[in-house]
């Protein structure tokens, strides 16, 4: 099982811990630590507003996810590429510490390769590298799906493109009732997201440079 082989070598606070597995005939099961607060998507896409997290907590979760990805990428000989970093695959423990999960599509790749061909990339469309972390970050910052056909203005259907144009034109985003401090955190997340999803691979940051920048903040 690909996931057992991959995650069996991982030990990090921001990666879900594999407790065990079972193979019985054609049935296979993986056992992980229980995550009482579920997955991140329920807090991002909550329509009722009854399940919410503060922007400060969202920012802390984003930093934790980045640290987990950095750990996966820092292997001496082989790095682990997840290929499906999305809200559903970010689990939250009792203290809302994020844990990257679901390594079924992950691949081992030589550590000295910083660019991966899209031929080997698999995963949920919109969350495959290079978009994976940047696209996740964008949804966390604005608490909405990046692609939404039901928005009021057609220009906002693909949110990352609209945000990019807003910043290019020197406009600030309208963020409702967020405090001044929360607006700063949201802006940090969006600018980092735009940095991560640039078209040229050489223009995108490594996860190490991203986490180093967050530690200095």
Walk me through the structure:
This protein is an alpha+beta fold. It has helices at 2-7, 41-44, 55-73, 132-142, 159-168, 180-196, 207-216; strands spanning 18-24, 27-32, 78-81, 90-92, 98-100, 107-110. α3 (55-73) packs across α7 (207-216) and α4 packs antiparallel against α6. Strands 1-2 form a two-stranded antiparallel sheet. It has a two-stranded antiparallel ribbon with strand order 3-6. A two-stranded antiparallel sheet has the order 4-5. It contains 7 helices and 6 strands. It has a single domain (35-203), classed as Transferase(Phosphotransferase) domain 1 (Transferase(Phosphotransferase), domain 1), CATH 1.10.510. It catalyses: L-seryl-[protein] + ATP = O-phospho-L-seryl-[protein] + ADP + H(+); L-threonyl-[protein] + ATP = O-phospho-L-threonyl-[protein] + ADP + H(+). This is non-specific serine/threonine protein kinase. InterPro entries: Kinase-like_dom_sf (IPR011009), LRK10/LRL21-25-like (IPR045874), Prot_kinase_dom (IPR000719), Ser/Thr_kinase_AS (IPR008271). Keywords: ATP-binding, Glycoprotein, Hydrolase, Kinase, Membrane, Nucleotide-binding, Serine/threonine-protein kinase, Signal, Transferase, Transmembrane, Transmembrane helix. It comes from Rosa chinensis.
């Amino acid at each position: 099982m690909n996931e057992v082989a991959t995650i069996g070598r991982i030990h990090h606070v921001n990666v879900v811990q594999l407790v065990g597995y079972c193979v019985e005939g054609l049935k296979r099961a993986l056992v992980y630590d229980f995550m009482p607060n579920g997955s991140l998507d329920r807090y991002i896409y909550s329509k009722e507003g009854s399940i919410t997290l503060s922007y400060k907590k969202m920012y802390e979760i984003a930093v934790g996810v980045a640290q987990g990805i950095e750990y996966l990428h820092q292997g001496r000989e082989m790095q682990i590429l997840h290929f499906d970093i999305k809200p559903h695959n970010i689990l939250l423990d009792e203290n809302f510490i994020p844990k990257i999960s679901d390594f079924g599509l992950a691949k081992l790749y030589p550590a000295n390769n910083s660019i991966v061909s899209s031929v080997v990339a698999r995963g949920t469309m919109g969350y495959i590298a290079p978009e994976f972390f940047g696209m996740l970050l964008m949804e966390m910052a604005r608490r909405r799906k990046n692609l939404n056909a039901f928005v009021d203005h057609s220009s906002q259907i693909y949110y990352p493109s609209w945000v990019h144009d807003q910043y290019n034109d020197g406009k600030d985003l309208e963020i409702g009732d967020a405090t001044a401090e929360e607006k700063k955190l949201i802006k940090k997340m969006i600018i980092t997201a735009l940095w991560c999803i640039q078209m040229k691979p050489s223009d995108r940051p490594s996860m190490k440079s991203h986490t180093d920048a967050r530690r200095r903040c």
